[in-house]
Structures are given as C-alpha cells and as structure tokens.
Design a protein that fits this description.
Strand content: under 5%
CATH topology: 434 Repressor (Amino-terminal Domain)
Structural class: mainly alpha
CATH superfamily: lambda repressor-like DNA-binding domains
Distance between the termini: 53 Å
Number of domains: 1
Largest sheet: none
Helix content: over 70%
Shape: elongated
Oligomer: single chain
Order of helices and strands: HHHHHHHH
Radius of gyration: 17 Å
Number of helices: 8
Length: 124
C-alpha cells in the first residue's frame, strides 16, 4: 500500500466517523454536497480522494475542522495530533455499533457528564 493509499484510508475513516457522529447517512451527505452516495462510500473506504471543494463541503456539512481530517498526516510542530484529542480505538468501536446502541452510549455519557458536573459543583 502506498503512502497516498494509506492517507486516503485514514482520511476516509475520519470522514465516516464524523458523518456517523453527526447522524447523517451517506445518502444525505451526498445530497447536501452534490455528489453521489457511491462516491461518499468510496471516500470513506479510501478508494477515492475528493477535490478541495469536496473536502471543504464535507467539513462544512459535518461541522468539522479540516484539522480533524489531516492533523496527524502532516507533521506540524504547532498542531496537536488528533490521536491526543480522541481515543480512536473507542471511536472505531463506537461507529460499529448500531443506532440503538450508539444512542444508549450517548445517554450514558450525557448522564456521566451531568453526574461529574454535579459532583464538581458540590466540591467547589
């Protein structure tokens, strides 16, 4: 596998992760940015790489920063690696869950954050 293929697969996984997190189907994403659902699937699998306009449209539609897609692929002293910001193993497992189980996880996380904030308020 060439570096380019590896980059495409990495970016594709992140596009899928952001799309699933946004609760948007491939079909809806495709419709909103004016490409085919098949092309979205190819992008997510790393079989294709979109034009700059396509990538910008994806970022705007999914409400993600382009750094989310490219950060650890570009060795920049000033940027924080995306791997430091998210637990990719957890997120890869999360996107494999069906919608019902993802909703359940979302509820649990929301409740844990609420509990944490309540406990923090009591300690302060």
């Amino acid at each position: 596998m060439s570096k380019g293929d590896s980059y495409n697969k990495s970016i594709g996984k992140r596009i899928k992760l952001a799309r699933v997190n946004a609760k948007i189907t491939q079909e809806r994403l495709a419709e909103e940015i004016g490409i085919s659902a098949r092309y979205v699937s190819q992008l997510e699998r790393g079989l294709a790489f979109g034009s700059a306009n396509t990538i910008v449209s994806i970022c705007k539609t999914l409400k993600i920063d382009s750094n989310f897609l490219f950060d650890d692929l570009i060795n920049s002293q000033d940027s924080t690696s995306i791997n430091n910001l998210i637990d990719t193993k957890f997120l890869q497992s999360y996107i494999q869950l069906n919608t019902s189980n993802r909703q359940f996880i979302d509820i649990i996380v929301h409740q844990l954050l609420k509990l944490q904030n309540d406990n923090f308020s009591k300690e302060a």
